[in-house]
Design a protein that fits this description.
The protein is of the alpha/beta class. The protein folds into 2 domains: 3-64, 434 Repressor (Amino-terminal Domain), CATH 1.10.260.40; 75-185, 3-Layer(aba) Sandwich (Rossmann fold). It is built from 10 helices and 5 strands. It has helices spanning 3-15, 20-27, 31-39, 46-56, 60-64, 83-96, 108-117, 134-144, 160-164, 178-185, and strands spanning 75-79, 101-105, 120-126, 149-154, 170-173. Strand 1 (75-79), helix 6 and strand 2 form a beta-alpha-beta unit. Helix 2 (20-27) crosses helix 3 (31-39) and helix 7 (108-117) packs parallel to helix 8 (134-144). The longest helix is centred in the middle third of the chain and has 14 residues, at 83-96. It is globular, with a radius of gyration of 16 Å.
């Protein structure tokens, strides 16, 4: 726990007139992630500190100095160019994976940048995302870390055949449900460290 970081984050957020939910939406995390950071029960990694600093309009060093211990929970990302899908999907992933750090991205480039600096254990990727497909993003993430588990998300069943050629672990139709996510977690190529999947 780091009460100094937690207090500073809470103070900076309230000074900006943001609720926990508003900050969470800006950062593509859930409100409970912000709550954990502000209670000191979890610490954000460097990439999340950078996001926090942009959202709060402060220098990253203001927060980095108070982060002394890295969080050892698995990193789980969800990438979809539609914010509404992230808004609905992130809470489900956090419900199913309460010990994980769950982060959302609307751009493939941000997800790649995050993966280069953080060990991504599991990635939920939309298949169609504009110029870069989820299939290409999967290949890039697995170049960065071959142990990254990938589950594709789509509203179109016809993508499932092409998706299997990428080395992905699974495929979910949108909108996702907690039960469907749990079923996919039992099929991962590389089990999540420290996670008990029921």
């Amino acid at each position: 726990m780091n009460p100094s970081f937690a207090e500073k984050l809470r103070r900076l957020r309230t000074e900006k007139g943001l609720s926990q939910l508003q900050l969470a939406e800006m950062m593509f995390v859930t409100r409970s992630t912000i709550t954990r950071w502000e209670s000191g029960s979890r610490m954000p990694d460097a990439a999340m500190i950078m996001r926090l600093s942009r959202c709060l309009g402060i220098d990253a060093g203001t927060l980095l100095g108070d982060v002394t211990e890295p969080d050892e929970c698995p990193n789980v990302i969800m990438v979809d160019d539609e914010r509404i899908i992230l808004s609905g999907g992130l809470p489900i992933l956090e419900e199913v994976l309460p010990e994980a750090s769950v982060i959302g991205f609307t751009r493939s480039s941000e997800a790649i940048e995050y993966a280069r600096g953080n060990d991504v254990a599991l990635a939920f990727l939309d298949v169609e995302m504009g110029k870069v497909s989820g299939l290409d993003l999967c290949r890039e993430l697995q170049k960065i870390n071959p142990r990254t588990n990938v589950v594709f998300l789509t509203a179109y069943l016809e993508y499932s055949f092409e998706a299997w050629d990428t080395g992905a672990c699974g495929f979910l139709l949108k909108p996702i449900t907690a039960e469907a996510v749990r079923k996919q977690l039992r099929k991962l190529r590389c089990p999540l460290k420290g996670m008990n999947i029921l």
